[in-house]
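Hi R.,

Here's the chain you asked about this morning:
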Amino acid sequence: MATLTTLPTRPPASGKPQHRELSDSMDRVRDELEKVRSKPTEENVHDLRVAIRRCRSVAAVFEEIDPDDSWREMRRKARKLFRALGALRDGHVLADWVKKLAAEDEVVRKHLHEQMDVDEPELLKEVEKAAGKFDDKAWKRLRQRLRRRVRYIPVGGLAAECLARERFEEIKQLHLVALRTEKAKPWHALRIVLKKFRYTVETLLPEHHAAWSSDLKRLQDLLGDIHDLDVLGARVTAETESDAPSRVVWREKLQRERDERVQTYRQLTLGRTSIWNKWSHALPHGERLEAASFARLQATARATQSKPRKVARISLRIFELLRRLKALPVFGEANMRRNLRASALLHAIGNDEKHPPRAARKFLLAMQAPPRWTRDQWELVAWAVRFHRGAEPAEDDGAFGKLPAAARQHVRALAGVVRLGRAVHKSGIDSPVGFKIEVTPEIVTLFIPNLVDSLENAARRAAGKHLLETVLGVPLVVRAAVAKVVTLEETPREVLFATAVGSD
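And here is the predicted structure, written out as tokens:
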């Protein structure tokens, strides 16, 4: 049975971990491809398929963080070759199982081998064709581009831990589904997600992988055997040239082999000392998981712009001032600050697209909601990012108009603050230090130190503040702060006052 172990909660202090796994894997694809081209043996086919699968799995993980098209291109370029290799590899694996489970003169074995002998030349031809068409130069260029992209997720960092935690939560959900059935599909889905988890940990959390590699391999082997037995069982069931009693014996034999592996899997994954508990204990939870979720979002923000935190800090300070003075009840709602912080961090997603706001929302909705977020909360963030620029949200605007009134107000408030934060930053302000706000029943005034007045800046701020003005229901004035420090005693009683003296 598995035993609990602990891992460091932070990367080692000595030396900075480097991204080598993806580059090495992409190099290995080219090396193994040459072997397959010259001699497509069973071993060479398997090694090339493993190398491609590792690259594709890592790309799928990074694609959730980084909207750059290179990740999708890498998976697309290897897709045909990977599928051809898979079909041939499956034939090899099934042939090995048939040899293992039956005598040479057994009826079903003979028929299965005859069919495999017929299929193999065609499968081999498909592999040779796909290998010949594989573009080595394009693969090498992709490797150079992706070497720079992987740096957005530091090895051993919080964002890496968050990605591993997300894969782990997927495993747990599919694990529960698989245990309730003997159908092949849920067990196969569990196997695929476990592979993604394994490659995520191997690439981004080397210390965790060193501690877990034997358990990961053992579980993957068990689930791989279960999948192979399910595929072979389907072949036996479809075998029409064999007599019925032989097929019954085969199905019973396959079921015994499968049951044995399922039982071993249960022993490893159920109970207080299970592998799941060991992994869960070492991955972030509680407040650290909250920090890891934002590290994940910050990685996406860095991938879409060079300095994402400036707009986020300005927007968050404006929000805090409005919330502190209770300018509107919506600013005091639960999770509002977290949603604002996320919306501001992610505001630049889609900049390279033809329709940036729509592309941003589409990308975020395709992402899995970060840990500790509900899907509804994440969709509000996606809407806020959608409307932080361009046309303002209209109450009768398609899908947005179908949201509940409270949700629409939430989105308009978030988008309004980020619009203003972005406009202030574009006016030459990099820090929210010294921001001050005054709120009266008739007007809200935001004072900003070192704000330069020009026609261009005035037009930019006028457009940036309009949505927030409609949310507040009163005029919003943005002006340069005067040098004089106004004390609370000097402020008229009817004026509410707050000052920002630091940054988030």
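One quick note: Residues 256 and 262 are 10 Å apart (CA to CA).

Cheers,
M.
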